[in-house]
Amino acid sequence: MSRARAMVVGAGPAGMMAAAQAARLGCEVVLVDEALRPGGQIHRQPPSSLAGGAVSAAARPEAERKRRLFDRFARHAGVIDHRPGTSVTAVYGLDRILIADETSSQLIRADALVVATGLHERVVPVPGWTLPGVVTAGALQALLKGGRVRAGDRIAFAGAGPLLLVAAAQMVEAGATVPVVALLRPVWSGLLRDPAALWAGRGVLSEGWRWLSVLRRAGVPVLTRHVALSVSGDGAAERLVIARHDGHGRPVPGTEQRFAADTVAFNHGFTANSDLARMAGAEIRFDPRRGGWLPVRDSDGATSVPGLFVAGDVGGLAGGLAAACDGAVVGTAAAGWALHRDAGRFAAQVATDRAERARHWTFQAALAPSWELPPDIHALVTPATVVCRCEGVTRARIDRAIADGHDGLNGLKRNTRAGMGSCGGRSCLRTLAALAGPRGEGEAVNARPGIRPVALAALANRVSDESVGS
């Protein structure tokens, strides 16, 4: 007879720690992740042939965190059934979770399911954002960390939040020229009003200061209270136009500046990858600062669905340090539920992780205002601007649907096809919701089977669940 099974979706810091803790406590653990190697976005690993190399002074703290995380995971990795290159494409209930890789699919039963799917970057569309050479800041990091590839020689950054500063400094260290980093708000404004948060995040702030020093030594201008107006070029990105904004997101006439760039990187915050939790029936709330549509959870990560837990940033943006601690707490609770139907059974074993998580949450709460978008920022989305890249849907088409009464996300999706493309709405749903107004933000789009693209051959080649675990 098999042991109780805990299934973890996502192998970033939260998922790795959740899997390790559940395995340590005696669960049979299945860890599913789309990437070929664990680590998630923040600790993305290159192929072994590209591993190694010198680590800069600014990058050393992250490298040390990565080492500690992987060391802790490695203690239990041998008993974890890790499925790399595999997606969860549907959750019909904890007894019917559909996973698929390139060649086959399988229904898996779980006594406890931990969703640690993180989040993805948000971009406010501007004219020209669909040109080749326009990317997200996280995509630049992914290419650099995962393939040692620097995507561009002259890279301009625009948007909100500290990720832009870190990514820009990393590109400088990789040999790129950065003509500008344009931020909607000062990153540190919320922190200066909260001494407790400053103290709680002193290690992260020290690390951030190192990255800022890289930018300063390179002479990179960091402009706050500036908004991106457009990207232009002959068939690809060649220049970024920004302007100072009035505090509400509207450009101040006469303050426009143009910067030559072969690559433009945007980041306007993040959206939680909560579609699996929504499909499983979890209660959802909307929090614009912490990632949009978030599963409602308690301190153990338990949702409104018995046996369903969420860990890390999918439950609200808090960063990689908090995610690792949260993963340990949630994995412990999931093991308690799977083995004893008692999420609090082993709570005392992760008291240190709880305390560390609380400290990181304090810091992140004070940092959250730096991602808050000015209220009129979407006025820059012109009628001809494409909002849904996958389906080519413009703002004019969306405005017509709203005028016809389709002001909820599901109605807009059905009427315009925005959000129906291969990305599943990850690039456009937050913009769609903002354009629709209060009802749009209050209504999460329906999560349906086929959340991740799956080859028909994989669906046809169904493997029996009886072959998994024992």
UniProtKB/TrEMBL annotation:
This is FAD-dependent oxidoreductase. Residues 386-435 form the BFD-like [2Fe-2S]-binding domain. InterPro entries: BFD-like_2Fe2S-bd_dom (IPR007419), BFD-like_2Fe2S-bd_dom_sf (IPR041854), FAD/NAD-bd_sf (IPR036188), FAD/NAD-binding_dom (IPR023753), Metab_Enz_Cyan_OpOx_G3PDH (IPR051691), Opine_Oxase_asu/HCN_bsu (IPR017224). The lineage of its organism: Bacteria, Pseudomonadati, Pseudomonadota, Alphaproteobacteria, Rhodospirillales. Residues 6-315 form the FAD/NAD(P)-binding domain. It comes from Azospirillum argentinense. Keywords: Oxidoreductase, Plasmid. One of its GO terms (molecular function) is oxidoreductase activity.
